[in-house]
Specification:
Blueprint lengths: L2 E9 L10 E10 L3 E10 L5 E7 L6 E7 L7 E4 L4 E4 L4 E3 L8 E4 H18 L3 H18 L5 E7 L5 E3 L4 E4 L2 H6 L9 H4 L1
Antiparallel strand pairs: 1-2, 2-3, 3-4, 5-10, 5-12, 6-9, 6-11, 7-8, 7-10
Helix pairs in contact: 1-2
């Protein structure tokens, strides 16, 4: 995967305000069977702030991508845009886009590790018995998938068509109008019909 850096500069950190403590890097590269993507990263050496995003150069139609995760598919490439919803519906975990959403290029195993880390953070924040019990079940199931003891469905729904699962067994299909209506994008949209 050959990368072409198109911009690299020191900037003031948007979080801690440190003068020239953050670096901003923008680069392009080709992802096999997907096309050209632009990746951006901002990282501060002073406070540790980090934000990354990935965008497809080409315009795509809204789509959902699914893959039954097996030990053979853990290394399959995943492109997740900041506006997509990623879930393991059979395990009961979903990450929807929000203002701090990040796009990334990873593999299926990396997506599972992100879910695992998010669940561990949630367990540290919520202390009621039901949340703790449910969180531990989710963690246990993710661990089983990582160890090849359980198969589950990975689902990515992207209203802007910028995401993809690159595996011969992955399925891609258009999102229906109803599915699109119910998806979060991470952007605030004002419906002109509602404001009149």
């Amino acid at each position: 995967m050959e990368k072409n850096i198109i911009g690299k500069m020191k900037i003031d950190c948007p979080v801690c305000g440190g003068k020239n403590t953050a670096i901003s890097i923008t680069e392009t590269h080709e992802v096999a069977y997907f096309g050209e993507v632009i990746e951006s990263l901002v990282q501060c050496d002073k406070c540790g702030f980090r934000h990354s995003d990935v965008m497809c150069v080409e315009q795509k139609d809204p789509a959902k991508h699914s893959l039954q995760i097996t030990t053979d598919s853990l290394s399959s490439r995943v492109v997740r845009s900041q506006t997509s919803t990623v879930s393991l519906p059979e395990i009961g975990i979903k990450v929807e886009p929000g203002p701090k959403s990040e796009g990334y290029v990873s593999n299926v195993e990396g997506v599972l590790v992100r879910f695992k880390e998010a669940t561990e953070r949630a367990l540290n924040m919520f202390h009621d018995e039901t949340s703790q019990k449910n969180g531990k079940i989710v963690l246990d199931n993710i661990e089983k998938v990582l160890n090849g003891e359980l198969e589950t469905l990975l689902l990515i729904e992207d209203p802007f068509g910028q995401s993809k699962i690159m595996d011969i067994k992955a399925k891609s299909e258009p999102l229906t109008k109803e599915e699109l209506k119910n998806l979060k994008t991470g952007f605030v949209v004002i419906d002109e019909d509602e404001t009149e």
